[in-house]
Amino acid sequence: MASVALSEAEKVYIVHGVQTRGVRSLRLGTFKEDLRVDGRGCEDYRCVDVETDVVSNTSGSARVKLGHTDILVGVKAEMGTPKLEKPNEGYLEFFVDCSANATPEFEGRGGDDLGTEIANTLYRIFNNKSSVDLKSLCISPREHCWILYVDVLLLECGGNLFDAISIAVKAALFNTRIPRVRVLEDEEGSKDIELSDDPYDCIRLSVENVPCIVTLCKIGYRHVVDATLQEEACSLASLLVSVTSKGVVTCMRKVGKGSLDPESIFEMMETGKRVGKVLHTSLQNILHKEESLGTKRQKVGFLG
Amino acid sequence: MAMEMRLPVARKPLSESLGRESKKHLVVPGDTITTDTGFMRGHGTYMGEEKLIASVAGSVERVNKLICVKALKTRYNGEVGDIVVGRITERRRSAEDELAMRGFLQEGDLISAEVQAVFSDGAVSLHTRSLKYGKLGQGVLVQVSPSLVKRQKTHFHDLPCGASVILGNNGFIWIYPTPEHKEEDAGGFIANLEPVSLADREVISRLRNCIVSLVTQRMMLYDTSILYCYEASLPHPIKDILKPEIMEEIVLETRQRLLEQEG
């Protein structure tokens, strides 16, 4: 993972900040608040900018900016043959490219390890029956199906990569439009696939059950959500929890050199579920809002 | 918990919001500035084919007969006497070094120092020959473009809001809690690892967010601008300062106050 060097004193400052149980009183009442370096509490996210349909020659795309982390995801739908063990379903293929623009560590083959790690995590969180309706991707059993190639491009690395990537993947899948096809069989029995003439005649994927990853970094004896690069450098262990909009955990993974005791894992999982539900609601609201703007929406893209 | 998602908004050109009449003369490397040969060439220009050509991307500044191009974003160029804040990345490994220095300074430590000499390839040599320089303890580092740090008489400021700031000429800004008493005998190399109080933390976090908003709006950083921005941000909660609309509002108020103060 891309990291920054910090002095001992800076790390101590960050750790104490996360653990401080300060009391701030407003006119309405008193409440306890923890204070991270940028003023956020332990469960606050940085401001997220989401935009879909930024790449024109893909079936669906999305760009997510979370603080200094910038992710671009493109989805391309191609026709292929289904896997032998699942003849009635299409499937997804993930590829993550950590571009050298993000940080000099990714130059040459430096970003490959991180890329494979992220891609494997994405495979794991989507590896269940309900995340994406794979049966809708089937055209004719055992012969043709839609394969969705999801390409993730890391443009800038500012901490909390997994969360931003999962938000971008969900937004891109929401934006994906797969052309409607019909299978025509003639008298000899050979099949022909006909694409509809209307470019707007497409099928959309239902992304209700697509999970999002919430990364919880353990700093001191507390855990934080959406850590910056400096906070990640102070944390020895993190827990990646993949949560659906209903609060169901599809997969969990621990990263980092340090150890976590079972009680903290349970607490972090509960926090992850709680935070994940709010994340999904916000994301769904913003995606619907963007879609309701339709053609009136001013596309910002990369030159805004 | 707070979670905010929004659609991106295209940035408005600054001159629109300021209502400035005169537009800056912006150039890119290779642009002709003028064909009049009567001018003296300053930084960022060179003479070629009887015309003055820009060598950096920035705005043209003219002082009587001197034309120079002030770059908007540059790598730091050291000058003798500059204050810099730096992080130790690598050290010379020799026996004396191991015995003497490792107790005081490790890789990753931050220090404040003054530039002693500049070499022809751009490398600088630093010295910490004063008690005000040395290893930096607990605090927050903000990295900005060096062109945004205004050159002043002193770069060490104890702000009245309760924290101190070092504005390094290389773009590294260090914000730290004001030490209660000056420890003359310690020499500045023993770091104090006691927890910093919540009040000081709030001031430091607010200053950090104010500096980040000034930088995002491309304003020069110096003690007065940082202080005005801090005062303008007081009505808002600390984490809201980084929201785009609040950032614009605060920086606009700072800009107006600075103009009033000058005019």
UniProtKB/TrEMBL annotation, chain A:
<feature type="domain" description="Exoribonuclease phosphorolytic">
    <location>
        <begin position="45"/>
        <end position="179"/>
    </location>
</feature>
<dbReference type="InterPro" id="IPR036345">
    <property type="entry name" value="ExoRNase_PH_dom2_sf"/>
</dbReference>
<dbReference type="GO" id="GO:0005730">
    <property type="term" value="C:nucleolus"/>
</dbReference>
<dbReference type="GO" id="GO:0000178">
    <property type="term" value="C:exosome (RNase complex)"/>
</dbReference>
<dbReference type="InterPro" id="IPR020568">
    <property type="entry name" value="Ribosomal_Su5_D2-typ_SF"/>
</dbReference>
<dbReference type="GO" id="GO:0006364">
    <property type="term" value="P:rRNA processing"/>
</dbReference>
<keyword id="KW-0539">Nucleus</keyword>
<dbReference type="InterPro" id="IPR001247">
    <property type="entry name" value="ExoRNase_PH_dom1"/>
</dbReference>
<keyword id="KW-0007">Acetylation</keyword>
<dbReference type="InterPro" id="IPR015847">
    <property type="entry name" value="ExoRNase_PH_dom2"/>
</dbReference>
<dbReference type="InterPro" id="IPR027408">
    <property type="entry name" value="PNPase/RNase_PH_dom_sf"/>
</dbReference>
<comment type="subunit">
    <text>Component of the RNA exosome core complex (Exo-9), composed of EXOSC1, EXOSC2, EXOSC3, EXOSC4, EXOSC5, EXOSC6, EXOSC7, EXOSC8 and EXOSC9; within the complex interacts with EXOSC2 and EXOSC4. The catalytically inactive RNA exosome core complex (Exo-9) associates with the catalytic subunit EXOSC10/RRP6. Exo-9 may associate with DIS3 to form the nucleolar exosome complex, or DIS3L to form the cytoplasmic exosome complex. Exo-9 is formed by a hexameric base ring consisting of the heterodimers EXOSC4-EXOSC9, EXOSC5-EXOSC8 and EXOSC6-EXOSC7, and a cap ring consisting of EXOSC1, EXOSC2 and EXOSC3.</text>
</comment>
<keyword id="KW-0698">rRNA processing</keyword>
<keyword id="KW-0271">Exosome</keyword>
<dbReference type="GO" id="GO:0005737">
    <property type="term" value="C:cytoplasm"/>
</dbReference>
<protein>
    <recommendedName>
        <fullName>Exosome component 7</fullName>
    </recommendedName>
</protein>
<keyword id="KW-0694">RNA-binding</keyword>
<feature type="domain" description="Exoribonuclease phosphorolytic">
    <location>
        <begin position="209"/>
        <end position="274"/>
    </location>
</feature>
<dbReference type="Pfam" id="PF03725">
    <property type="entry name" value="RNase_PH_C"/>
</dbReference>
<comment type="similarity">
    <text>Belongs to the RNase PH family.</text>
</comment>
<dbReference type="Pfam" id="PF01138">
    <property type="entry name" value="RNase_PH"/>
</dbReference>
<dbReference type="GO" id="GO:0003723">
    <property type="term" value="F:RNA binding"/>
</dbReference>
Automatic annotation (TrEMBL), chain B:
<dbReference type="Pfam" id="PF14382">
    <property type="entry name" value="ECR1_N"/>
</dbReference>
<dbReference type="InterPro" id="IPR026699">
    <property type="entry name" value="Exosome_RNA_bind1/RRP40/RRP4"/>
</dbReference>
<dbReference type="InterPro" id="IPR025721">
    <property type="entry name" value="Exosome_cplx_N_dom"/>
</dbReference>
<feature type="domain" description="RRP4 S1">
    <location>
        <begin position="90"/>
        <end position="116"/>
    </location>
</feature>
<dbReference type="GO" id="GO:0000176">
    <property type="term" value="C:nuclear exosome (RNase complex)"/>
</dbReference>
<dbReference type="InterPro" id="IPR012340">
    <property type="entry name" value="NA-bd_OB-fold"/>
</dbReference>
<feature type="domain" description="K Homology">
    <location>
        <begin position="139"/>
        <end position="179"/>
    </location>
</feature>
<comment type="similarity">
    <text>Belongs to the RRP4 family.</text>
</comment>
<dbReference type="GO" id="GO:0034475">
    <property type="term" value="P:U4 snRNA 3'-end processing"/>
</dbReference>
<dbReference type="GO" id="GO:0003723">
    <property type="term" value="F:RNA binding"/>
</dbReference>
<dbReference type="GO" id="GO:0000467">
    <property type="term" value="P:exonucleolytic trimming to generate mature 3'-end of 5.8S rRNA from tricistronic rRNA transcript (SSU-rRNA, 5.8S rRNA, LSU-rRNA)"/>
</dbReference>
<keyword id="KW-0271">Exosome</keyword>
<keyword id="KW-0694">RNA-binding</keyword>
<dbReference type="GO" id="GO:0071035">
    <property type="term" value="P:nuclear polyadenylation-dependent rRNA catabolic process"/>
</dbReference>
<dbReference type="GO" id="GO:0071038">
    <property type="term" value="P:TRAMP-dependent tRNA surveillance pathway"/>
</dbReference>
<keyword id="KW-0698">rRNA processing</keyword>
<dbReference type="GO" id="GO:0071034">
    <property type="term" value="P:CUT catabolic process"/>
</dbReference>
<dbReference type="Pfam" id="PF15985">
    <property type="entry name" value="KH_6"/>
</dbReference>
<dbReference type="InterPro" id="IPR004088">
    <property type="entry name" value="KH_dom_type_1"/>
</dbReference>
<protein>
    <submittedName>
        <fullName>Exosome component 2</fullName>
    </submittedName>
</protein>
<dbReference type="GO" id="GO:0000177">
    <property type="term" value="C:cytoplasmic exosome (RNase complex)"/>
</dbReference>
<dbReference type="Pfam" id="PF21266">
    <property type="entry name" value="S1_RRP4"/>
</dbReference>
